[in-house]
Amino acid sequence: MHTRTYTKGIGLRISTGFLMVVLLMVTLTFIALKHMAQVNLQMKNIVENNNVKVELGQVMQDALHERALIMHTLPVLKDPFMQDEEFIRFNTMGSRYVKARQKLDSLVLTDSEKEILSEIRVLTKKTQPFVQKVVELGFEARSDSLAFDNIREIAIPKQRMIAEQVRALIVLQQQQAESALNKEQLSYEQARTLMFLLGGIAAILGILIAIVVLRHVTKQAALLEHQALHDELTGLANRALFDDRLKNAVLRGQRQAVTFSTILIDLVRFKSINDSFGHNIGDLLLKEVARRLKASVRKMDTVARLGGDEFVVVLEALDHANLIQFTEKLVETMNKPFLLAGHEINVGISMGISSYPEHGHDCATLINRADIAMYEAKRKNTPYVYYTDKIKKKANLNLVRA
Fold first, then answer.
1. Which of 57, 247, 331, 342 is buried deepest, with most CB atoms within 10 A?
2. What sign has the CA pseudo-torsion 100, 159, 73, 304?
């Protein structure tokens, strides 16, 4: 009877010890999982909030750019109907700018963001009368010279001040997001350490749980990183990832003396296709264009969607002869009909091409010159144009003549 009582006591102590270990393991697992879930949620919120902020800032920046182009265009237009159309676009861009700024105001902002937005509001209020004056002059006959003087000396400098503040806002948002993600990454590292301790205490079972949780966290982190750097619709690199890839290409070019080319691509008739067939077909078209672009390049090259129907390709280490061959092949590929939901759709492309180091030694210059070439392609109604100094001089000459 004494033996039975002793055995029973041992079994009770073992069971109690086992239950305590299990309880400790469950408690630590719960704490670790809760902490990791919080980290994941915070990282997701940071990525989503930052994406919204950067996108709104980009909308403001694009609207300012479009309004500046319209101010240059109005004085040279003689057709009153075309003037009215440009004036409507001017007001539309203004509304888009204001709505984006108001949406930013409605978000949770830091003190630094609020300060920059306040400065943007003040500058916008001060600038509006001058901009309105330039637009009015654009409608008046025999006022081209006065209009361009006002554009050059008053309106554009003031618009540029607003654009600089918008750029500063975007940079600040990116820096804050990076800082917050680094902080959350540190929290993630601490949670991972806790999971390793749990594995040591709970032995094999703890290790298995740690592996499962870590794999889940890693998968979630990879998914969030992919979402932050890729276009949601097409899966291509987004503007942030493209900017990073282009900077790296420039650095490689400087260190290794290699060339690369930047191709800006805009779809022809995309708006009319969207209006005729609906946005669902428009989205399917963008996805198929992205697939064809991706299939046309090498693994070392970059294909990105900058927004809307605008794409960009960075071709690494490609000489001029192969660049011509690639361009012709891409035109042929894009000219093939797209079969989408029972509809056969034809869409053209306009491409502007610049090369490093021939056309520039930094990202901004290369993009700017590819953009100039793309608009020349649109003007000529041709699939592509390679940038040359002649094109730039011609563009400047047109402005001077106007």
1. 57
2. negative
Alpha carbons 259 and 125: distance in angstroms, whole number:
45
What would the two tokens of residue 8 be? 């029973």
CA-only gyration radius of the chain, Å:
29
Element (H, E) at 171: helix 156-229
- Active-site positions read 309
Task: Dump pLDDT digits (tens) for 365-392.
Answer: 999 999 999 999 998 899 999 998 888 7
Question: Which residues, other chains included, contact 286 with Cβ-Cβ below 8 Å and sequence gap of 6+?
Answer: 233, 234, 305, 309
Phi, psi dihedral angles at 260 (to 5 degrees): -155, 165
Cα–Cα distance for residue pair 209/48, rounded to 1 Å: 29
Between residues 202 and 87, the one the model is more confident about: 87
What's the pLDDT score for residue 145?
Answer: 59
Residue 226's pLDDT is 74
Q: Which residue has the higher pLDDT, 173 or 396?
A: 173
Residue 267 in tokens: 């779809």
Nearest alpha carbon to residue 264 among 357, 379, 392, 376: 376
Q: Which residues have C-beta within 8 Å of that of residue 51, sequence separation ≥ 6? A: 228
The DSSP H or E segment spanning 257 is none
| Cα 233 versus chain centre, distance | 12
Query: What span, in angstroms and rounded, lies between the C-alpha atoms of 306 and 263?
Result: 12
Which domains are seen in the chain, by residue range?
1-229 (1.20.120.1730), 239-401 (3.30.70.270)
317: which DSSP letter?
S
Report DSSP state, residue 343.
Answer: E
For 257, phi and psi rounded to 5 degrees? 55, 45
Which of 67-81, 223-237, 374-388 ranks highest by mean pLDDT? 374-388
pLDDT at 204 over 70: no
Sheet arrangement for strand 384-386 = 302-307, 310-316, 260-268, 348-356, 384-386
Across the chain, mean pLDDT equals: 78
The three-class DSSP label of residue 294 is helix
